[in-house]
């Protein structure tokens, strides 16, 4: 049960993506601060793979915990694969929002006129009376 709490606390904070944006989970910033304190122990995926594999060994001896053992083994394999590919856990840090300057927000006006239909399509024939 303590191992389950440990795994949940380790896995809850999401890592920042290399490209794009990452949505932060509710309350993640508090656990992120805890994980940042431990530095490379929590950031390195090789360490996480070894931790998950070590937690899976004692659970494998009981029939009632065999499903948890399989899940921890799969997680260990995924972390090992990610570590081989050079990935690591990076905290999501809030960037201070910069207010845009009014001069920077105005772009150059368009240089080409907007597209218009051909001249004969713009001319409408006169409406016939009674028609």
From TrEMBL:
<protein>
    <recommendedName>
        <fullName>Cytochrome b-245 light chain</fullName>
    </recommendedName>
</protein>
<comment type="subunit">
    <text>Component of the phagocyte NADPH oxidase core complex/cytochrome b558 complex, composed of CYBB (heavy chain (beta)) and CYBA (light chain (alpha)). Component of the phagocyte NADPH oxidase complex composed of an obligatory core heterodimer formed by the membrane proteins CYBA and CYBB and the cytosolic regulatory subunits NCF1/p47-phox, NCF2/p67-phox, NCF4/p40-phox and the small GTPase RAC1 or RAC2. Interacts with NCF1 (via SH3 domain). Interacts with SH3PXD2A. Interacts with DUOX1, DUOX2 and TPO. Interacts with NOX4; this interaction mediates superoxide generation.</text>
</comment>
<keyword id="KW-1133">Transmembrane helix</keyword>
<dbReference type="Pfam" id="PF05038">
    <property type="entry name" value="Cytochrom_B558a"/>
</dbReference>
<feature type="compositionally biased region" description="Basic and acidic residues">
    <location>
        <begin position="90"/>
        <end position="104"/>
    </location>
</feature>
<keyword id="KW-1003">Cell membrane</keyword>
<comment type="similarity">
    <text>Belongs to the p22phox family.</text>
</comment>
<feature type="region of interest" description="Disordered">
    <location>
        <begin position="90"/>
        <end position="131"/>
    </location>
</feature>
<keyword id="KW-0472">Membrane</keyword>
<dbReference type="GO" id="GO:0020037">
    <property type="term" value="F:heme binding"/>
</dbReference>
<dbReference type="GO" id="GO:0005886">
    <property type="term" value="C:plasma membrane"/>
</dbReference>
<dbReference type="InterPro" id="IPR007732">
    <property type="entry name" value="Cyt_b558_asu"/>
</dbReference>
<feature type="compositionally biased region" description="Basic and acidic residues">
    <location>
        <begin position="119"/>
        <end position="131"/>
    </location>
</feature>
<keyword id="KW-0812">Transmembrane</keyword>
<feature type="transmembrane region" description="Helical">
    <location>
        <begin position="49"/>
        <end position="82"/>
    </location>
</feature>
């Amino acid at each position: 049960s303590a191992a389950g709490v440990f795994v949940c606390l380790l896995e809850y904070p999401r890592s920042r993506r290399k490209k794009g944006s990452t949505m932060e989970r509710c309350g993640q910033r508090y656990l992120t601060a805890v994980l940042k304190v431990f530095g490379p122990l929590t950031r390195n995926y090789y360490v996480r793979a070894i931790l998950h594999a070590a937690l899976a060994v004692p659970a494998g001896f009981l029939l009632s915990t065999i499903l948890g053992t399989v899940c921890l083994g799969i997680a260990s394999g995924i972390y090992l694969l990610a570590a081989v590919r050079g990935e690591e856990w990076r905290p999501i840090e809030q960037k201070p929002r910069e207010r845009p300057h009014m001069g920077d927000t105005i772009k150059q006006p368009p240089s080409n006129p907007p597209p218009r239909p051909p001249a004969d399509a713009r001319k409408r024939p006169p409406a016939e009376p009674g028609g």
